[in-house]
Amino acid sequence: MNKENLEKEISSPNDKKICTRCLCTKKKEDFFRSRGNNPQYEYSTCNKCYKGRKNVQKEIDPISRKKTKLEATLSAPVLTISSQKNINSNHINLELNDSSQHENHNIIEDDQYNNNVDDTDGLLYGLDEVQELISKQFQDAEDLNEPVKLAFEIELDSRLIGLIECNFQEFQDLCDLKTIKKNFQQLVNVLLLPLEYGSGYYWEVREIHLITKKKKFTGCVTAYLGCTQQEDREWKRPENLPPKRRSEARAPINRYACMGNVILTIDPQHQRVLIQGSHLQAHEHPQYRRVIFPAAAKQWIQNNVEYHLHNSELYRRLQHHNLIDAQIHTKEQVYYWATVFSKQTYIFNLKNQLLSTKEYLEKQQYFKIIYYLENDFVKALGFTTPLLNNIGITNLKEIVVDSTFKTNQERFELFAVNANCGGYGMPVAYLYLLTCDGEAEAYNDPKNQINTRVQVLCKFFTNLRNEGLLPAFVLLDKDAGEISAIEEAWSWTTNLQLCYWHLEHAISRRLKDKKSKSSGYSKNKAMEAYQQFDFINSSWIPNNGTGSLCPDDKIKEIINMIKRHANMHPLIPVVGYLWINWYNKKDWKLFARSAYSSAISMARTTMITESHWRVLKYNYKYNYNRPRLDRLTQILVEQLVPDCDLKLTQYCTNRTFPAWWQTFKKDWNKAMNTNIESGMDERYHIDATNWICSCPAYSHNPYFLCKHLVAKKNILPTFMETARRHDYPLVFFGTDKIPSICQENDPWKRTVIEDDFTNQSRSSSSNLRNVALIESNSTADEMEVKLAHYKKVFDFALMLYKREKDNVHFVKSFDTLMKPAVKAVEECKKKLDAQTQQSTWKASKNGKLSFWLR
Questions:
Q1: Is the pLDDT of residue 516 over 70?
Q2: 673: burial class by Cβ within 10 Å (0-12, 13-18, 19+)?
Q3: Which segments constitute the SWIM-type domain (predicted)?
Q4: Mean pLDDT across the stretch 624-642?
Q5: CA–CA separation, 576 and 590 (whole Å)
Q6: Structure confidence at residue 555 (pLDDT)
Q7: How far apart are CA 427 and CA 97, in angstroms?
């Protein structure tokens, strides 16, 4: 074979083509002829067949014309439709940019339409017969291991024609292709059902074309369908692109070279549809679309979304009502639809979550907004709950205030005001608070008059006071902002009590610090201490050198000393720290219960509110890590507060024990079974009437119990006849209903408080706000400097890495240095993307940085 013939043989497969009409192999140039503005358009039929057909063409409808070549072409292969990768079967190319695109991609000229012909068996079937017909053909083909070929015609019911709802004369100018295709799409969706049920495969609509004759719409449409499991539909993820969703990490469905194609030629004027198709290879029937969530299950979820069922409970209910199949539908699907329908109940403003929360609260009964502010520096929203009135605002003598983070995606700090009701924390008010970094010029704007955290807290607590809340005791942690705001809001009359746990934790941590700095105990402080306690040497100043503040063997002794509030000889050198931070006159009243001698608080810690946060985060919002602010509010309003109200009702009607009762009874029984040495009545002062004893065990017991009082009372108390009080008697036994504090011992009854604060208080508050403002500005400036520095350093590091990418030793050392930083940042991203609640107290082994995310 010479070189010329070899080149001819090699090039022949690409230069030749098979005519779809005469099935002859001809040169490609025999298939080119003019179409519209394109003089060299490549057709599927040769020019000879086209001319011969054009000469004998008659003016009959397109469907009848196709039936004339039944026997000659029944065995001819069906035209394969070129499919596009990554086509979403739910989105059809309906919108076109210009008229030229309309003509090239969405309109089939009548001569081209006539060239894509396969013929039928000459019978006219009804739509109800299609499923059985297709099922038989596919079953026979599978039994014989042969390809499936479809070619039959069905008659459309007039009701199906009504789906199209178009006047053909109205669309002769092709001005509204989108409307035409949308109408025909409804009809195609109906025709898909018997096709899918009969074949056992799923088919997607790939293209819908209009059939025209001389640029006039004939009223006929051709729809091209493809098997969803064709191998050309497979999408492969690039190796450098990681999966973004969990579904992408699952095994994909199997793909096959089945070349499954179906052509639907719809002629609504003659109420006929010509169905042509082929499926070359039988394969496993698809299962993935069976996971579509049932409409009945969606409706059930929507009807019951107000009950806020947990996902597992919701899933079980749907199973019980036979609305879902456990082998098909997952809890994630149930969770998704529950989320979709619940959003409709609380989102009132998609962009501004604080405003959405405000609008949601305004629609809730018995919830009252008492403070709302949005400016360049702070955003805040405070509101009271129905529990404030249910408990009785005049009965609230002890409240616990605390805040928490990691509750919402906007990073608002959440404050709670809990009433102490029998040891149960009842939330009577909440506050959302967020501080922002505004521009320096914005301070002059009148709307930014309130621009610090302390100012917002002061306004919130002042509004609570205006609602009538006058507590005798407020328990809180060691937060200077909260302390200042509460003191100013309640006119320095209410008694502030620091949490014992926070007190012990702060002192213990400082005393154990091996790199402690100077205590700040100067000559002036020494003289101030001497004036109050003359046994302190005013000339003694501790050494300001760094090192351990206190010997290890003295730490426990000092902690116990502070708990006893006893005057003991100062231990060197810790006395300076204790005086500066705890034992001076200003701070003494914050942690010493003896600071107010007429009454005593029942609670010693803020654990009531800490428990409240735990219940909120892990019982109600565990599956909502940082939800929207309005979603968090809905959880509080519709779930947590109603449950607290139920607990309050049960407590007030004696249907549940007080929270302290079990421990109280245990300590009582233990004291009752303890032997008492003779002569104890003379050694200690025991007063069962006022319920006081001078023994050491009495002062350390949270319920004021000791074996001496229990032995003297000699009863077995019941919870309905036992009441704890703020003043004498500290524990009352009897059926009489008495207030928890006498009026003469209530600080709000003993002191006349003016609504207008004194000049001194205003001056101190103004100074406090100025100091806070200066500190806030300096901190913001410092953060901006650090941010710019970090950006510069990291950009330079990446530039070095790019430059030295071929330097193996540099790359290896760089990767080693960056590994912990990258790991920490990835852990932060993981926490932010997590669905469940992030831990509040304990950081994970590799999540120390992510633990501090708000």
A1: no
A2: exposed
A3: 684-717
A4: 90
A5: 18
A6: 75
A7: 59
CA angle 795–797–803, rounded 5-degree value: 105
DSSP classification of residue 362: H
Which of 569, 561, 577, 575 minimizes the C-alpha distance to 516? 577
Beta bridge partners, 340, equal none
| Encoded amino acid at 741, one letter | I
Residues 105 and 206 in one domain: yes
Same domain, 331 and 471: no
131 and 257 share a domain? yes
pLDDT digit string, tens, across residues 33-58: 877 677 787 877 788 877 776 554 44
Contact 211/108 with Cβ under 8 angstroms? yes
d(CA 153, CA 276): 9
* Bridge partners of residue 210, in order along the sequence: 107, 221
Please tell me whether residue 698 adopts helix, strand or coil conformation: helix
| Range name among 206-220, 256-270, 291-305 with the lowest pLDDT average | 206-220
Rounded Cα distance, 474 and 601, in Å: 9
Is residue 202, in this structure, part of any structural domain at all? yes
* Coil/strand/helix, residue 233: helix
Residue 474 has pLDDT above 50, yes or no: yes
**Same domain, yes or no, for 101 and 219?**
yes
> Of 346, 365, 382, which one is at a domain's C-terminal end?
346
224 in a structural domain: yes
Mean of pLDDT values over 570-591: 50
Among the residue ranges 645-649, 683-687, 754-758, the one predicted with the least confidence is 754-758
Single-letter code of the amino acid located at 503: L
CB environment 8-33: b (16+ within 10 A), e (fewer) = eeeeeeeeebebbbbeeebeeebbbb
Say whether 104 sits in a helix, a strand or coil: helix
Asked whether residue 651 is domain-assigned, the answer is no
Alpha helices, DSSP H, located in 450-581: 453-466, 480-489, 500-511, 523-532, 552-564, 575-578
Residue 163's pLDDT band, with cuts at 50, 70 and 90, is: low
Q: Which of 107, 113, 20 is nearest to 61 (CA)?
A: 113
* The pair of three-digit structure tokens given for residue 671, joined into one six-digit string: 């004291």
| Lookup result for tokens 């009804």 | 126
State whether 184 and 285 are in the same domain: yes
Amino acid at 428: V
SS3 sequence of 81-93? CCCCCCCCCCCCC
Which amino acid makes up residue 643?
Answer: D
Q: Is the pLDDT of residue 401 over 90?
A: yes
Smallest CA-to-CA distance from 383 within 636, 648, 644 is with 636
In this structure, the answer to whether residues 138 and 207 fall within a common structural domain is: yes
Q: How far apart are CA 267 and CA 120, in angstroms?
A: 15
Asked if residue 263 has pLDDT above 90, the reply is yes
Helix, strand, or coil here: 771? helix
Half-sphere exposure of 71 (CA within 13 A, CB side): 0
Tell me how far apart the alpha carbons of residues 638 and 620 are, in angstroms, rounded to a whole number. 11
DSSP characters for 583-615? ISHHHHHHH-GGGSSS---S--SSHHHHHHHHH
Give whichever of 17-21, 207-211, 573-577 has the largest mean pLDDT: 207-211
Quick one: pLDDT at residue 518?
Answer: 56
Q: Which contacts (CB < 8 Å, 24+ apart) does range 82-88 have?
A: 83/206, 83/226, 83/230, 83/232, 83/233, 84/206, 85/232, 85/233, 85/235, 86/235, 87/204, 87/206, 87/233
**Is residue 709 within 8 Å of 698, Cβ to Cβ?**
yes
494 has a pLDDT exceeding 80? yes
Residues 195, 122 within the same domain: yes
Find the domain containing 831 and state its range. Answer: 760-852
> Would you say how long the chain is, in residues?
854
Residue 701 sits at φ, ψ, to 5 deg, of -80, 130
Bond from prior residue into 573 cis (ω within 30 degrees of 0) = yes
